Amino acid sequence: MPIIPEWKALYFLCRLAVGLLSLVLIFATAVPLLRSDAWWIRVFDFPRVQIAALIGLTLVGYAVLHLYGPLRPWEYALAAMVGLGLVWQLYSIAPYTAIYSKEMSDSHAVDDSNRISLLIFNVLSDNREVAALRDLIRDNDPDIILLSEPTQWWLEQLAGLEDDYPYTLFQPQKNHYGKLLYSRLELENPEIRFLIEPEIPSIRTKVRLRSGAVVTFYGVHPRPPGPKRADDGEDGGVEEEDEKENEDGEREDSDMRDAELMLVAKEVKELGDVPVIVAGDLNDVAWSHTTHLFQRIGGLLDPRVGRGLINTFDTKSRLLRFPLDHVFASRHFLLVELRRLPDIGSDHFPLFVVLDYDPGASVANEELKPNASDEQEADEAIDKGKSNG
């Protein structure tokens, strides 16, 4: 006798659980469409793959429930809405799969005099795997090494690297935003700049290739959206008075990140028809509205498009990984190689990219152009970031 009531109760609980999950997933899909820089909205830009997978499981759940009895009209409505959500999520991430056409074409050049290879790595301040990084550099032999989050400790431990990389630019810091740049290619007018916030540095320099051609290079690591992060108090940490200053300046929302990226993109546009590379930990995913706006304003191509997600964060989780470390380039470049390198102790994987500068590459590459609304949105983001910085 009690079997039927127990079965009905279980069936009801399953329907309730699937319905509640549907509402959460609909919210998670719709809220990033808001053009707000509130951190709790912008974080939903990141897990599109994970949300798509959960939506797929939810639709399977509705199909299974339907086998055991008719669904209510509101359940059909929820199923239809999450189905639309799945279409939107897949549409957003499809460009970062092999089924999509490549935004940056492949290079087939034999001559490597216009070639530039880059190793991009967020070392993580308290990571101590220096030997592993040295081995990685030796094995991949990059022309340029851009390190994010290094402290003075990292700079000291990497002493001697200048023997192979004589052109350098150093800005070690204790607040997770330091930068080290090593290059075997000649750097011209290298400079550390603080574009939006006085504690967040960025790099701009010209790089002379082996052929003699000159490329403008930007290295960036803007502040991420999210809850305030307490800095470590040991080795990679800050002194007490500096810690308070940094904590007070910590921004939860994405306005500082967006402003810095838009400022760099506007600079790139103003440079005109010259080869440009922008690299670093952007603290934003490849498919976000901000990243796409950054690309259109600067006319920058993403070598990931048509090749794969190539997630670089977080090494600690197989389920929650995102493409946060990037190398963007102007349409003057063709791609030779794009690889994620092994985990060497950080929460980021290193990224290795090889590009060929080809003045005729624009014929093969897709051209990205902003529209009037893009320009206005970028200007507004810069103004807001500067006013809050």
UniProtKB/TrEMBL annotation:
Q: Is Transmembrane included in the keywords of this UniProt record?
A: yes
- GO molecular function annotation: endonuclease activity
Q: Domain (Endonuclease/exonuclease/phosphatase): give its ranges.
A: 121-348
Where do Acidic residues bias regions lie? 232-253
InterPro entries given for it?
Answer: Endo/exonu/phosph_ase_sf (IPR036691), Endo/exonuclease/phosphatase (IPR005135)
Q: Which residues cross the membrane?
A: 12-31, 51-69, 76-94
Q: Which UniProt keywords apply?
A: Endonuclease, Hydrolase, Membrane, Nuclease, Transmembrane, Transmembrane helix
Is the keyword Transcription assigned to this protein? no
Q: Which Gene3D superfamilies match?
A: Endonuclease/exonuclease/phosphatase (3.60.10.10)
The protein in question is named Endonuclease
Q: Which organism is it from?
A: Methylotuvimicrobium buryatense (Methylomicrobium buryatense)
